Amino acid sequence: MTPAPDARTQPGRRAASVEVVVIGGGVIGAAAAWQLARRGHDVLVLEKDELGHPRVTSHGATRIYRQSHTSPAQVELAVESLHRWRELEHETGAALLHLTGGIDHGDPVRTAAVAASLAAHGIRHQWLEPAEASRLWPGLRFDGPVLHQPDSAGRLRADQAVAALTAAAIGRGATVRHSTPVERVDVLDDDLAEITIPGGTIQARRVVLAAGAWTAGLIGDLVALPALRVTEEQPTIFRPVGATPCVVGDVRWPTLIHHIGPAQGWPASVYGIGVPGIGVKVAFRGTGPDWQPDVRDPRPEPAQLSRLQRYVEHYLPGLDATDPAPRSCTFVSTPDAGFLVDRTGPLVVAAGFSGHGFAVAPALGRMVADLSADAPTARTLSPAASR
User: Fold this and answer.
1) Per-residue pLDDT for 387 more than 50?
2) What's this model's pTM, rounded to 2 decimal places?
3) Does 300 reside within a domain?
């Protein structure tokens, strides 16, 4: 659907009055728009699809929130984002982040590193023996000690979070246009860029590129990007078996990170998160095939699904491994799994969030706002920041 022309998009008319254009209305773009608008900037968001469309990387019911990272930068982003998610809830009246508690288990070296990071940041945690953890969560099976974080992990309502960020940005004065694809971006000078959309062009002092899988195609050779790999991942929802206590009450299902992988015969580490009223979403991290934008095959990849079912049967006996409900989502990753938030001339790029930028989107939006307004901020997070 092509939007009706207005003062910003009439053919032949150059609209230099738009201060910041945000390309991409997913969670990062919406968070950036909210942060920019609340500082008083003139913001226009352009999103190629309608709100909540499955092609938007941020779609879906739930995402994990956690502070159990080994990178200080990632922990700091998570702590900041907890505060900012609460600000957003207060501003919009939406309930978005539910702290259910989280657990890490598996590889002892990796879990010990996570525990050391939690201790260094003063985040409450405790070690549980496998038998004790199994009593607390009888639907899970553990091979060794379990690192429990009772109040610093949980789940975000993903679709509602994007809607709330968008509403908050609009409430602060931003203009948001869905179903408005960007055809090209041109840099005119260090403080001016031009965006071409159906029906005309828009000029802006800053352009924020937060277009997920479409970012590299829009940027072309304007910015020297690291190689961004786009993969299609296959998180799958499994329903509980009978009345297993750990999944009957949604908040009693902890966020789950199982540090396991090829050395133990599995393709990658595993994450799990409760989906209220449905079951538990489980997935291997970052094992999907390469994916081309605008070409989404909704059919599940059978080999990956079969491996995931075997994992659930062994480690999550409280779930019915025989009744999977596969979903599809895209990961956009840099070669070193670092987050990319940087600026070149009038272009601010926010990309490569490796499947777990959603939880820290409010802090990333703040970083984008800082760069757009020439305020000092960390530009590119370290390679370990997203691990």
Assistant:
1) no
2) 0.89
3) yes
